[in-house]
Amino acid sequence: MATIITDVKVILTAPEGINLVVVKIVTNQDGLYGLGCATFAYRHLAVKCVIEEYLKPLLIGRCAENIEELWQLMHQNGYWRNGPIENNAISGIDMALWDIKGKMANMPLYQLLGGKCREAVPVYRHAEGKDLDEICENIQRFHEMGIRHIRCQCGGYGGSGYGKAPGTAPRGAEDGVYLDSRKYMRDTVKLFEGIRSKLGFEIELIHDIHERISPREAIGFVKELEPYKLFFVEDAIPLEQGTWYRKLREQTTTPLAQGELFNNPAEWKYLITEQLIDFIRVHLSQIGGITPARKLQILAEQFGVKTAWHGPGDMSPLAHAANIHIDLAAPNFGVQEWSGIEPPNFVIQDLKGPHGALLEVFPGLPEFSDGYVYANDRPGLGVDLNEKEAAKYPCENTVTTWTQTRNVDGSLQTP
Ligand code: MG
Which residue of 19, 375, 393, 405 lies most exposed, with the fewest beta carbons within 10 A? Predict the structure, then answer.
């Protein structure tokens, strides 16, 4: 008997104050359902609407086994394609269909992708702090947890918190997150010089530029970071300015990682096929889920580019699990960003909270241990949803402020 989709539900929950969007696909088979992540934290109601009003009516009564067919059907159904709201909505369904496929096969997802290339996935964490000493202390603590790749930032992504325009801005400048790109670059070069002289070259260091400087500035800055032998720099060039990558590549030997904002194969295809980047780090739900991510991983493999999927706090444990399953099966896996969601016994209290609520809402989160993350061996993604617990943490719709980034003259700069 074919497995038919009988219901598509959207569950909104915010156990850690971040709006998460989960899709549950119910089938005609007794007790067989799938779960997927459709989280676009800052537009969560729009994604919910696309799923409930447009994708659900398209999918009810169709065969849940035909993942590729259904992905293409959803992708082209609205005629205009590759937008973030639509892609996240499709991702929730796509991941849920892979979850169902794994349950039908009684295998964890990595088995369906060809089996393990490694037993566990090495992860990188973020060390921040107010000064060099505090950042070095945090690096040491992560290192003691077995983490060998550590991203270092001074003052978030080089900006202040959201607030009033500083005195250097012109009269009438809007509130925002103010960035002084020149100061940020000077401070960051000094930071890495300090870390290397204090801690040496054994620890792999990463830095995220987060698109917060101009492409011209990025070229000089990444060159200046060369003596500190970074594992990679993230997002040196804004999404819209991708052609600058060729100039950056010609100027530096620092490995380049790009892609957490990518929506569209056109944005990554030439960067990979022309070997202009070293690591591809898309946000899985943002590109439409496991189906396109697996194709992207294999494309990257053909050109010697490694994966470093985006793994921030504003995605659900279902998406973290999807990252881990693909990582396990990918020969060209590089490193995985992991945002501090260890089970309670691994938590250093003053680095991150205990994540108790998140783990109760999403039992089955991949396990962190000694710098590695292990998938569990339950079928599919291996992560469940406790809907009763999820209902205790309603999402909130607020105006997003951290993305209102501005240059010293008050003009907007990509966040
Ligand atoms: Mg980043």
Answer: 393
CA distances from 279 to 91, 242, 262, 336 (A): 22, 15, 13, 11
155 band by pLDDT with thresholds 50, 70 and 90: confident
The CA 141 to ligand 1 mean position distance, Å, reads 21
pLDDT at 346 over 70: no
Instruction: Give one DSSP letter per residue of 162-224, joined into a string.
Output: EESPPTTSPTTPPPEEEE-HHHHHHHHHHHHHHHHHHH-SSSEEEEE-TT-S-HHHHHHHHHH
Q: Give the separation between CA 376 and CA 366, rounded to whole angstroms.
A: 6
3-state secondary structure 22-51: EEEEEECCCCCEEEEECCCHHHHHHHHHHH
Instruction: Report the C-alpha gap between 40 and 286 in whole angstroms.
Output: 8
DSSP of 315-352, one letter per residue? Answer: S-HHHHHHHHHHHHH-TTB--EE--S---GGG--TTTS
Q: Please give the model's pTM, rounded to 2 decimal places.
A: 0.96
From 44, 126, 149, 210, active-site residue: 210
Residue 350 scores a pLDDT above 50: no
> Rounded CA gap, 102 and 9, in Å?
20
Whether domain 111-379 has CATH 3.20.20.120: the reply is yes
Residue 235: closest CA among 187, 190, 270, 283: 283
Domain positions in the chain are 5-107, 111-379
CATH code of the region 5-107: 3.30.390.10
Choosing from 33, 110, 157, 178, the catalytic residue is 157
Residue 205 has pLDDT above 80, yes or no: yes
To the query of whether residue 54 is one of the catalytic residues in this protein, the response is: no
96 C-alpha to ligand 1 centroid (Å): 26
pLDDT in tens, 119-153: 999 999 999 888 999 999 999 999 999 999 999 98
